[in-house]
Specification:
CATH topology of the largest domain in chain B: Rossmann fold
Shape of chain B: globular
CATH architecture of the largest domain in chain A: Orthogonal Bundle
Structural class of chain A: mainly alpha
Number of strands of chain B: 19
Radius of gyration of chain B: 24 Å
Distance between the termini of chain B: 53 Å
Number of strands of chain A: 0
CATH architecture of the largest domain in chain B: 3-Layer(aba) Sandwich
CATH superfamily of the largest domain in chain B: P-loop containing nucleotide triphosphate hydrolases
Largest sheet of chain A: none
Order of helices and strands of chain A: HHHHHHHHHHHHHHHHHHHHHH
Largest interface: A-B, 17 and 25 residues
CATH superfamily of the largest domain in chain A: MetI-like
Strand order of the largest sheet of chain B: 6-7-8-3-9-10
Radius of gyration of chain A: 23 Å
Oligomer: heterodimer
CATH class of the largest domain in chain A: Mainly Alpha
Largest sheet of chain B: 6 strands, mixed
Helix content of chain A: over 70%
Number of helices of chain B: 8
Order of helices and strands of chain B: EEEHEEEHHHEHEHEEHHEEEEEEEEE
Shape of chain A: globular
CATH class of the largest domain in chain B: Alpha Beta
CATH topology of the largest domain in chain A: MetI-like fold
Structural class of chain B: alpha+beta
Number of domains of chain B: 2
């Protein structure tokens, strides 16, 4: 309950602020040419990126999973790998190599290349989980491969596809670093500028309100589209692997297309990083600063991971063991909070702490709270899946064998959920380590993390100085990506 | 091991939606399971048999009534004894082995620390007829039937007062179900355990248990030996459920005589009313040249025997005959009744 309330702070903040300022002034603040321009920018970019990511994600997933493209395992790894490159690092890579990459086109290219795996990964998992018997039934009813794909396979992929596209949209609405570097203003970058330059609370809040509305619209849209239909696999037993489609003459040309994509998404940032590490004139490798930034990153991320996992435990427990309207609401509310961009959470916590508990302003505590709000759903998802591996019947058996509640938790439940607790904590750790926006707004004065150091260097165009931080950020993200891949595989 | 006695046990669940009444899942059940015997609780799904089992295990608390193991009341008087202090062996559906522990650790789970790796594990593996080499296997390396046996060994290892088996064979293949069922019954007898087996399969209930308790809509309809329940069912519905019997209207005659569409029959008891409902089990209907004419509607040939659906004077009837003697569908045969027939007063029609 408390956790859910915590997660709702930003929403409450935006809502109360809107009421306090009053509708008339809100109207004036929102309906300005500048805001309308931002709205157009944000919406067009979001729609374009979601569309491009969906097309790319589905096409690549199909190629890798269902055709005889050479070396599918290798492609799979390479296609997921861009997840390990934070979007702002990717943006930095492109901009630092070619200053002409900016505006809508540049943003579209860079963000799509960063985020298409969010669609690709769940679609691959769904394709793998699909019972080939369904497709075989469709063929036997006289449908061609193509008809079968559009009438049987695609509808089954819908939940994965919509979920992925939603994630792309939410990430994009929250994206600050990459878009700021690419000089394409959206709500998030504008809120940050507003906050940084004038500390104009009302204007920033009004824009945050619009941003929150966009996020909620996206969530609602996904819920409506997904509907309440179930896509369960009927029958038990292991699904067979379906026959791969022979590409024949298209095999190598398509392999070339995939290669090009991998080069763009992975090769460019790698090259840029190595390039700036090697030739960067401003890079004299400040080992001391690098170490202290790494140290504070590790401490903050560790605290964030610990706090978030602990907060996730009761939420997941309620959701799995005590299903009900209230508990579902609690669980959902944490997800809604996650749809809020880091910038809104940051802003809300700055204002809320200054108003209510000024002591915590500019402390690590407040930053950790922001991390809990931002990353709670990741931990909840992990812990939940773990708890589902530990059904109540096992507790009953343990009780009937004479084991008390505490001993059951120690001997049965904990060993079963420990891996997912660890995975959840690790995911949060890595997410915190590469988080930029809220960290920039809330980190205590004098504390610098890898992300903030990278940001101050790259936003001042000191590309060489930024390179070592970027490299460390990418290295930190690698294990998270591997974990994410595992989690997708575990899902039915 | 001890005897299990339930007296007037009831348990309701709150209504699931508005406008629905509370459901009485278990309604005033009184049942005695003697020491060292196996009782099958038989009933269709939703009859409350699993609820009954959960009440005995202590996962649920009864609204009224008492549950006792020998003289020790575990529910009904004062604070109910929590499950972990009841010493009840519980074998759930699908076994529910602890997935993070190997076979030996699963079996040893309920044993005191010192015994967990000792001879008791081998003893239990022997009891459930599994090779001792299975000690180190993980649950997912076992077949469904083997998992069930390990689950039973785990339940029996701490020498429980009562063993509860919740449809333990329903997830197994037909062939495996029978052999696992027999192995489990043997193991329970060898351990001299008091057992309660919940099932919806009447042949499983009849073949494995010493006592069959039939539950319908939460109420105990009849409890008795398998032969009692089969030969003298409490009401026509139970006769249909347990024996697959068909019922025919009939009229009482002198003493134990009666007449029906099949001609004159002998009753098990003197009739208590003039209008009767006779229940005739398929094994009582025989092909008989001296009998009445019947039309063969449908024949299900099983090899060793065959089920024949007949129409006799407007009434439908099922006969079970040996496979080679089965007639073909569409034929006209003559049939008669073998043995005494169970009769109930015919329901009054308005």
């Amino acid at each position: 309950m408390f956790v859910a309330l915590l997660a709702l702070i930003p929403l409450v903040y935006v809502a109360t602020y809107t009421v306090i300022i009053g509708p008339a002034e809100i109207w004036d603040l929102v309906v300005r040419p500048r805001v309308l321009e931002l709205l157009r920018n944000t919406v067009t970019l979001a729609v374009a990126c979601m569309a491009a990511s969906t097309v790319l994600g589905v096409a690549l997933a199909f190629l890798v999973e269902r055709t005889d493209l050479p070396a599918p395992r290798l492609w799979h790894g390479l296609l997921v790998a861009p997840l390990a490159v934070p979007a702002f690092v990717n943006g930095y890579a492109w901009v630092s190599l070619d200053r002409s990459i900016n505006g809508f086109g540049g943003a579209w290219l860079v963000v799509t290349l960063s985020y298409y795996p969010l669609v690709y990964l769940p679609v691959v998992a769904a394709l793998r989980g699909l019972d080939p018997a369904l497709e075989e039934a469709s063929w036997s009813l006289g449908h061609t491969r193509r008809q079968t794909f559009s009438r049987v396979v695609l509808p089954q992929l819908r939940p994965a596809l919509l979920g992925g596209a939603l994630l792309v949209g939410l990430h994009l609405l929250a994206e600050f670093g990459a878009l700021s570097l690419l000089r394409f203003p959206t709500f998030t970058t504008a809120i940050y500028d507003q906050y940084g330059s004038t500390f104009n609370g009302s204007a920033a809040t009004a824009m945050a309100g619009v941003l929150v509305l966009l996020c909620l619209l996206l969530l609602l849209g996904e819920l409506r589209l997904r509907g309440s239909r179930r896509y369960a696999r009927v029958g038990h037993g292991a699904a067979r692997v379906s026959e791969r489609l022979a590409l024949r003459g298209w095999r190598w040309p398509l392999a070339l297309v995939v290669t090009t994509l991998v080069v763009l998404a992975l090769g460019v940032p790698t090259y840029a990083l190595l390039h700036w590490l090697a030739v960067g004139t401003s890079a004299e490798l400040p080992l001391g600063e690098l170490l202290s930034a790494t140290g504070s990153t590790v401490v903050l991320a560790g605290l964030g991971a610990l706090a978030t996992t602990l907060a996730a435990l009761p939420v997941a427990w309620l959701a799995v063991r005590h299903r009900g309207r209230l508990t579902t609401l609690v669980e959902r509310s944490t997800y809604v909070a996650n749809a809020l961009p880091g910038i809104v959470v940051g802003l809300a916590l700055v204002v809320a702490s200054l108003r209510l508990v000024p002591v915590v302003y500019q402390t690590a505590l407040l930053l950790v709270v922001a991390y809990v709000i931002l990353f709670l759903p990741r931990a909840v998802v992990s812990v939940r899946s773990g708890l589902e591996q530990a059904p109540v019947v096992l507790d009953h058996v343990a009780h009937s064998l004479g084991t008390g509640s505490l001993a059951t938790a120690r001997r049965v439940t904990l060993p079963l959920i420990a891996p997912s607790l660890g995975a959840g904590a690790a995911l949060v750790f890595l997410a915190v380590a590469t988080e930029l926006t809220a960290t920039l707004m809330l980190s205590p004065i004098g504390t610098s993390t890898l992300a903030t150091e990278f940001w101050s260097a790259s936003s001042e165009l000191r590309y060489g100085a930024a390179a070592p931080y970027a490299l460390l950020l990418v290295l930190i993200s690698v294990p998270a990506t591997v974990l994410l891949m595992r989690q997708e595989r575990l899902q039915p | 091991m001890s005897a299990l006695t339930m007296t007037g046990v009831s348990r309701s669940f709150p209504p699931t939606g508005s406008g629905q009444a509370a459901t009485r899942a278990v309604d005033d059940v009184t049942l005695h399971v003697p020491h060292g015997s196996l009782t099958a609780v038989l009933g269709p799904s939703g009859c409350g048999k699993t609820t009954l089992l959960r009440l005995i295990a202590g996962f649920l608390v009864p609204d009224s009534g008492t549950i006792a193991f020998d003289d020790r009341v575990v529910a009904g008087a004062g604070r109910p004894v929590p499950p972990q202090e009841r010493r009840v062996g519980y074998v759930p559906q699908e076994g529910a082995l602890f997935p993070h522990l190997d076979v030996a650790a699963n079996i040893g789970f309920g044993l005191p620390r010192g015994e967990r790796s000792g001879a008791r594990i081998d003893e239990m593996l022997d009891l459930v007829e599994l090779p001792r080499g299975f000690r180190g296997r993980a649950p997912h390396e076992l077949s469904g039937g083997q998992q069930q046996r390990v689950a039973l060994a785990r339940a029996l290892a701490p020498r429980p007062t009562v063993v509860l088996l919740d449809e333990p064979f329903s997830s197994l293949d037909a062939s495996l179900r029978e052999s696992t069922g027999r192995a489990v019954a043997r193991a329970l007898r060898a351990a001299r355990a008091t057992g309660l087996l919940v099932t919806h399969d009447q042949s499983e209930a009849l073949s494995l248990s010493d006592q069959v308790a039939v539950l319908r809509e939460g109420r105990l309809i009849q409890a008795g030996s398998p032969a009692d329940v089969y030969l003298a069912p409490h009401d026509p519905e139970l006769a249909r459920f347990v024996g697959g019997a068909t019922s025919l209207p009939g009229r009482a005659g002198e003493g134990r005589a009666a007449t029906c569409a099949l001609g004159a029959v002998t009753l098990t008891h003197p009739a208590s009313a003039d209008d009767l409902l006779l229940v005739i089990r398929p094994d009582q209907v025989v092909l008989d040249e001296a009998g009445v004419e019947a039309h063969v509607d449908e024949v299900s040939f099983y090899g060793h025997d065959a089920a024949i659906r007949l129409t006799v004077g407007g009434a439908a009837l099922v006969a079970r005959v040996t496979g080679p003697s089965a007639p073909a569908a569409g034929q006209t045969v003559r049939v008669g009744v073998r043995g005494a027939v169970h009769a109930y007063p015919a329901p009054v029609r308005d």
